[in-house]
Amino acid sequence: MRWTLQPKPPTQKVEQLANALGVEKPIASLLLQRGIETYDDAKKFFRPSLEDLHDPYLMTDMEKAVSRIEMAVENKENILIYGDYDVDGTTSVALLSSYLLSYYPNVATYIPDRYDEGYGVSYQGIDFAADNDFSLIIALDCGIKALDKVIYASEKNIDFIICDHHRPGDALPKAVAVLDPKRDDCNYPYKELCGCGVGFKLVQALAARRNQTIEDLLLYLDLVATAIGADIVPITGENRILAYYGLKVINSNPRTGFKAILQQVKKETLNITDVVFILAPRINAAGRMKHGNHAVRLLTETNEALAERWAGEIEQFNSDRKEADQQITEAALLKIIENKEQDRMTTVVYDEHWHKGVIGIVASRLTETYYRPTLVFTKSGDKLAASARSVRDFDVYNALEACAAHIEQFGGHKYAAGLTLYEADYEKFKAAFEAVVAQTIDPKLLIPEIRIDAEIDLEDITPKFYRILKQFAPFGPGNMTPVFMSQHLKDTGWGKCVGEDKTHLRLTVRQRNSAPFTAIGFGMADKQDVACSGDVFKAAYTIDENEWQGTVTLQLKLKDIIP
Predict the structure, then answer these.
(1) By C-alpha distance, which of 56, 58, 305 is closest to 205?
(2) DSSP string, 495-558
(3) Are 556 and 469 a contacting pair, CB within 8 Å?
(4) Nearest-angstrom CA–CA distance, 477 and 282
(5) How far apart are CA 542 and CA 147, in angstroms?
(6) Measured between alpha carbons, how far is 262 from 146 in angstroms, rounded to an integer?
């Protein structure tokens, strides 16, 4: 592990902000690191307001998209809502279809089959639309690179509206409207929306024409918050507002499908981390193990008995998914050793029998063992399909772009991407990817990093300090849970390994004459010698609450300790 201490903001600025807000200096420092410099900035941060959402008509082509949908409604056309099979795609489809169906009946949904059709807009989907008399397809969380597919659809007299958030290629599809804040010619003020976020802006624009306010749309924000968490987009600006209010909906008045999932897991109050680790994997499991339609059906179901049935099915898909990803991860780790590839700059592994639905999760698991850009391939029809995952601060999308000569199709983000190629090109691609990464990556990026926001003393950790810290939520990229460092810590003699297999480390630490704090390090049993030798050490940690026999205390959640 390498520790990186974030730069300290200027002392004068810290003092000014601390005085203006009436908070301690460590809190003011954390705010300045997040770009919050004034009382008004802090007010917007701590009290996110729906009034600060941007006008949806600032997005290029929004007027065209709304006019085309209004024309379809007027002419009683059939509208097909088309979305990807992951969380962002299925929540987008559930959002837009349920909104349109609230006032117009001729709306249906379509999720491509991960195995038969693959990612994005498919020819089969367009044929389905043509065969069933749909004249407008609205594609969500996909379509920005579907140039040929959009032409194919227009030959069948089907119009396209695209709502995407992925990076466009050199040309845009010739659709009626292309909504994507990452378009070069789009001046929309916030660029980091997820696919469901772009879908929500379309709903917001449609609602404005129907004299509805943002209050009328609150019930859809649970879907948007789930997509924001699952798609790992920055929780800043507009995403922060949408996630904040979406979590309120999830916790106070969740849709029937979410309620049914939460009954399965017995969880009362959810934060964004729970959304990522409880709701998202279950919604994703449908598209991974069976079909994304199951997720859309659950997310739009209003009958409680049926929702419970669908949630039970999805729980089973999720169990199957866990089993598959564990088996494939073990097999992939074995392959790396058999091929003597432990010391490469990249991990690229392939097996034709691996389950296509879980290779993305497996790629993430492999980066936990070998911290480096990773691709996991499997057979998909007559081609190979892969999921790519990266390490912090390395752009895997750019690396794939540099290997485009060996790739049939690819798309995605800085940290996660998908691609297909022909089997004959696999070894050439593998060599090219290793060479590109070796030439372009800073070697220190191959060592996992702990970013420390600030050094504090244990006596700074008071109930008031923690109360304010909790209000920094929702946490995520661009606003991560603050990580602190403290030096001159000593275990009071109670340190021990705990847990069923004794893999966790539990300490009671003091700093000089401070009050003692419980500290827990999950999977950190190997640090027992450092912590329990009687010598002082320094620790990197986050702060959370621990409830034991009805008493709530603050504890340190250890990330690393060093002598």
Answers:
(1) 56
(2) -EEESTTS-EEEEEEEETTPPPEEEEETT-GGGHHHHSSSS-EEEEEEEEEEEETTEEEEEEEE
(3) no
(4) 22
(5) 46
(6) 36
Residue 476's region, left for phi above 0, alpha for psi from -120 to 50, else beta, is left
Token digits of residue 293 = 């339609």
What is the token pair recorded at 552? 């709530």
Whole-number pLDDT of residue 487: 96
What is the gyration radius of the CA atoms in the chain, in angstroms?
25
Residue 244: strand, helix, or coil: helix
Token pair in block for residue 135: 């004249």
Backbone conformation region of residue 453, classed left if phi is above 0, alpha if psi is from -120 to 50, else beta: alpha
CB 452: neighbour CB atoms within 10 A?
18
Name the one residue in this structure whose structure tokens are 């847990």.
499
Dihedral sign, CA of 238, 240, 245, 249? Answer: positive
DSSP state of 85: S
Closest CA to 33 of 69, 9, 61, 12: 9
pLDDT at 550: 82
pLDDT digits (tens, 9 = 90+) for 415-436: 889 999 999 999 999 999 999 9
In sequence order, which residues have a C-beta less than 8 Å from that of residue 191 and are 6 or more positions away? 181, 182
Sheet containing strand 347-350, strands side by side: 347-350, 374-380, 383-389, 416-421, 409-412
List strands edge to edge, sheet with 107-110: 107-110, 78-83, 134-140, 159-163, 177-179
- Give SS3 for 156: coil
In order of 357, 463, 508, the CA distances from 554 in angstroms are: 40, 8, 12
**Pair 388, 365: CB distance under 8 Å:** no
* CA distance linking residue 33 with residue 36, whole number of Å: 7
Give the other-Cβ count within 10 Å of 369's Cβ: 14
User: How does residue 494 score in pLDDT terms, banded at 50, 70 and 90?
Assistant: confident
C-alpha dihedral sign at 68, 71, 72, 73: positive
Q: 264 near 317, Cβ under 8 Å?
A: no
Across the range 401-426, mean pLDDT stands at 91
Q: What is the residue whose two structure tokens read 């169990």?
A: 319
Share of the chain above pLDDT 70, in %: 100
Q: Tens digit of pLDDT for each residue in 67-121?
A: 999 999 999 999 999 999 999 999 999 999 999 999 999 999 999 988 888 788 9
Length of the chain: 563
* CA 299 centroid distance within chain: 18
* Local structure of residue 442 (DSSP, 8 states): -
